[in-house]
Amino acid sequence: MTIQVTFKDKTYQCDSSRPLLSTLLEQGAFVPYSCQAGLCQACMCKVTQGVVPSESQAPLDKHLQEQGCFLPCICKPSQDISIELATKANITLAEKNISDFASYTTMVLEKTWLNDDVLRLCLVRPESLEYRAGQFINLTQPESKLTRSYSLASLPCENFLELHIKRVPNGRMSNWLCDELQCGENIEISGPSGACYYQQEEQEQDIILAGVGTGLAPLFGILRDALESDHQGQIHLFQASLNQKGLYYQNEIQDIVNDVKNLTYIPCVLQGEAPSNGKQGAIDKLIIDTLGDCTGKRAYLCGDDAVVQAMKETLLQNGLTENDILADAFISSK
Fold first, then answer.
1. Using CA atoms, how far apart are residues 25 and 222, in angstroms rounded to an integer?
2. How far, in Å, CA of 212 to CA of 210, rounded?
3. Which residues of 131-140 are buried (b: 16+ CB within 10 A; e: fewer)?
4. Contact between 176 and 150 (Cβ < 8 Å)
5. Confidence of residue 332 (pLDDT cuts 50, 70, 90)
């Protein structure tokens, strides 16, 4: 069924069986986006006339739902609607979420390769930007306005923002960040967003930090935040990659391990020989092989969506509940 969507004083003909974001983009509408899976919330809009399916509002906080905010990337509208981008100017933000929609222009400080295809990108931290280690921000290409989300590996007390950029084959954003964006140049960022960050009220609880690839970025921030907060429970860090070439920051993490009694670190590889202090196999199985029953622990899971889901399912089968798990799943976008 074809429905009419009015956006920025223009009417678009949209297929109700497909996500609204896709059909708008195909017809030349500008809507910021990144994951296209309802995770990053970069595309959030507000319905001004008509009703959108409740599923397209489910990932949002209640106060945003009540104001008509929804995610067009997971919205398949069944009736004609009028919409606009959700901004600070047209929605009332809860105090704790005001920074979620703030935009900043900042400068590139440093670019360093961590391995063959992961870039450490450091940006000047805007003075007014407040975040929790492990959250993510959106980066926007100035000309195309292409937007992608990247997790923060830095701590809020540091004067820079650290991001780990995985080069994606034919990836428009990752290749631009890796090859074209230069130190000293400006870039637009927005955020922060995300709820996968250290829970300071649970300092006695044993925690599992498990990630694959650049899923280490938010975990590295969460780990250091936990240690800065004097976490008392045991911390188990599992870093996974396809093979040893994909692992990075091993020396930096080992230096932390050498100074901290309650931290264990296990690098994991799916193929080939594992590091001397690591293991070979699927990370979800290795977590259980190492820790056994995980009842009473809290888990932070980051990286590729499929791997995060596998880890989550395995942990749920071995003592954890949904409330024990915080996740930052990455959806690859070109």
1. 35
2. 7
3. bbbbbbbbbb
4. no
5. low
* 92 has a pLDDT exceeding 80: no
CA gap 4, 8 in Å, rounded: 13
At residue 302, φ and ψ (nearest 5 deg) are -140, 150
User: What pLDDT does residue 96 have?
Assistant: 40
Mean pLDDT of 199-211: 92
DSSP track, 248-308:
--HHHHHHHHHH-TTEEEEEEESSSPPPTT-EES-HHHHHHHHH---TT-EEEEEEEHHHH
For the stretch 38-65, pLDDT in tens is: 777 778 899 999 999 999 999 888 888 9
Q: What is the mean pLDDT of residues 190-206?
A: 86
Contact 3, 77 (CB under 8 A): yes
The token pair that represents 156 in the structure block? 């809020």
Pairing of strands 45-49, 81-85: antiparallel
CB atoms within 10 A of CB 65: 15
- d(Cα 268, Cα 250) in Å, to the nearest integer? 11
3 state DSSP class of 121: strand
Nearest Cα to 262, choosing from 303, 222, 226, 312? Answer: 226
